[in-house]
Amino acid sequence: MSDGKGKPAFLNDQLSKRTTIFGLRLWVVVGICVGAAIVILLFLLSLCFTSRRNKSKTLTNKNPTFIPTVSREIQEIRVDPPISDPDPEPAHVEVKKGDQDGGGPEVSHLGWGHWYTLRELEEATNEFADENVIGEGGYGIVYKGVLEGDHKVAVKNLLNNRGQAEREFKVEVEAIGRVRHKNLVRLLGYCAEGTHRMLVYEYVNSGNLEQWLHGDVGPCSPLTWEIRMNIILGTAKGYVAPEYASTGMLNERSDVYSFGILVMEIITGRNPVDYGRPTGEVNLVDWLKTMVSNRDSEGVLDPKLPDKPSTRALKRALLVALRCVDPNAQKRPKMGHVVHMLEADDFPFRDDRRGGVKEQHGKSSRDGAMPMEKRLSEPGDSSGYESSVQTDRTMLRKREGDDEQ
User: Fold this and answer.
1) Which fold would CATH assign to domain 72-202?
2) Which residue numbers belong to the known binding site for ATP?
3) What global pTM score does this model have?
């Protein structure tokens, strides 16, 4: 017992003795040494970790075709809540590692859809068979697919999936994923696996707009003028130009230009470029401008239209289209103003009671021989679309009266 009690006392005495190192007690010196050892060990571990990470980055840079399975930038996506649910929580993408057998990512649920695996989409489209192709363009190829449960979908396989593809993919997922409109196909989910970038949409049994405009629908199109204007207005409220697939960037002015061509295509039933037509009619924009300048507005209408619109409605649609394709990008209206122009029943014939209108109207009367298309390209505040429109109102009213006579 005495020996057991003596040993702790002996250790305490030894640790309490002062050393030659600044007169510090032994236990203080031991504590300092242990702490220093821990700090050195942590420093060495951090150096090792940093070195390995730098080597990994070097190998990644040497292999430019390698793209991470899922970018950190798209691991969390916030989307607007559906209209029916006023206060839902923001949707989050939960990323899970794939199992050892498949090697691919697991399905992750989103607020508005799913994260599909490549394996699922291959099975749904029969290995992306040619007979399942329902559309293609510069952005990629669209396949018809059938998921488990006999659920039909449209799978868009983005062809430009290298370089800036991740950014393009992220832009489309974030932009289209939150859009909700009856005239726009709903995005169900996406696939980001290896170099593959795909989008999964709901399948529309009735076909797409291109099929109804340019397909074999018989001598009379089922798309009446009212239906076409509803499509134009609905699309304008959620429009995203297709050229982002090749640039990775959404440019507001180019977006408006593309929408203007779309409006022309819906009005005329023609393709933007058709080499099967005469030389002066190959380019839709140039041909339509020529027809309008020759005061032959009705001549641009789709011959398959079951009924002709009123002169006012036609000129309003043409005016919107021509303003959108203004050669000067800065003079093109914003999409919000395009929607306002389309929704305004009295545009461009409403009375403007602001000062200076009579002077503008007088100028319009003096320039009566000037073609409408030319005046549309004159300088003006196209962001508000009114300045150059004001100079056209009197002449448009006059022409409307002439046409009715």
Assistant:
1) Phosphorylase Kinase; domain 1 (3.30.200)
2) 156
3) 0.50
